[in-house]
Specification:
By secondary structure, the protein is an alpha/beta fold. Strands 6-5-4-3-2-1-7-8-9 form a nine-stranded mixed beta sheet. Helices cover 37% and strands 16% of the residues.
Length: 333
């Protein structure tokens, strides 16, 4: 471990499958029928390594994690090992499974909602019924003691809906909200950046008594430099110089490829130079915090604030909060 390794509990993200039942226009996993599933035996082997590496929080991602036939048992295994368990879902299957997930020990659920109504969200996600199912699942999660959070992908198509979406989510009992910038393999242009600021700045500057306040940085950046880079170069805000502190606290496992990365954003933004990250197995043994992984971590800790082009608002805000405060509240990433 590096000399800068923190005492904060770490986050372990695991992409447990790549199949998905949604047809979201911005996602590489749209309607994927990939057959890979992260196994219960692999997770059982991983958990002692995670504890030794200081992991306190585990989040399952996909694809659509609720399509995994063993997702409830995976949550139960992690909770039984003392982990705070989370997953991110499109919400379509959540009403059916949330009671069993809560009983298994799920601590947090994150639902992806991009519109303020079924008429818009289901169109963006090209999946009828998803908005209503997601909201219903969030309400049930809250009743069952599972922390309800929403992640929203924001772009020119939907930024004007964000004030109404905040109202809807606040009334539904959602307690955390992330707005992250739409990322595509092309430039994203807004006809009037000043209008984006006029519509969305009040979301971030309002007090919590008026409704949900989005976590992390503004999706279009907090500083004039970040906003210029976003509106002119389509680069979302990233961790501020000199270092990205997310890399010390996060291990993201791409189960299908057997690779681990220092941030949940990195594996989605790789180029043709190679697989990136580091292997999770060496000579057949599953290992975290290997020398190869630490080299990967050190690179992005130092270079991320200069080169990353696909950061999330919560990752950027998390890093800046660590630099400023030394600690971050749980589940703020």
């Amino acid at each position: 471990m590096s000399a800068t390794t923190p005492t904060r509990a770490r986050y372990l993200f695991i992409r447990i499958l790549e199949a998905c039942n949604a047809d979201c226009f911005m996602c590489d996993f749209a309607l994927s029928r990939d057959t890979f599933r992260f196994s219960r035996s692999d997770f059982a082997e991983l958990l002692p390594q995670a504890r030794a590496a200081g992991v306190g929080y585990v989040r399952f991602t996909g694809g659509e994690p609720l399509m995994h036939p063993d997702v409830v048992e995976l949550v139960r295994a992690g909770a039984g090992a003392g982990m705070r368990m989370s997953l991110i879902t499109n919400g379509s299957m959540l009403p059916k499974l949330v009671k069993d997930l809560a009983a298994a020990g799920l601590a947090q659920v994150i639902v992806s909602l991009d519109g303020a109504s079924a008429a818009t969200h289901d169109t963006y996600r090209r999946s009828p019924g998803m908005f209503d199912a997601g909201l219903r699942g969030l309400r049930l999660a809250d009743e069952l003691g599972v922390l309800p959070r929403v992640n929203t992908v924001v772009g020119p198509h939907n930024y004007t809906e964000m004030p109404e979406l905040r109202r809807v989510l606040t009334e539904a009992g959602v307690r955390q909200w992330e707005l992250s910038a739409l990322k595509l393999d092309r430039s994203i242009r807004y006809p009037d950046p000043d209008h984006v600021r006029a519509v969305c700045d009040p979301l971030y500057t309002a007090g919590p008594q008026s409704g949900l306040v989005p976590m992390g940085k503004r999706f279009y950046g907090d500083t004039p430099e970040e906003q210029w880079r976003y509106f002119e170069e389509s680069t979302p805000p990233r961790a501020s110089l000199p270092l990205c502190h997310v890399t010390d606290d996060v291990i993201y496992i791409d189960g299908r490829r057997g690779r681990m990365h220092a941030c949940s954003c990195i594996p989605h933004r790789e180029d043709a130079d190679g697989p990136g990250g580091a292997p999770i197995r060496e000579n057949g043994a599953l290992l975290l915090d290997t020398p190869a992984f630490r080299e990967h971590v050190d690179h992005f800790r130092e270079q991320g604030p200069r080169v990353c082009s696909g950061c999330s608002t919560t990752a950027a805000g998390y890093s800046d909060d660590v630099a400023r405060l030394g600690e971050v509240e749980p589940w703020r990433y």
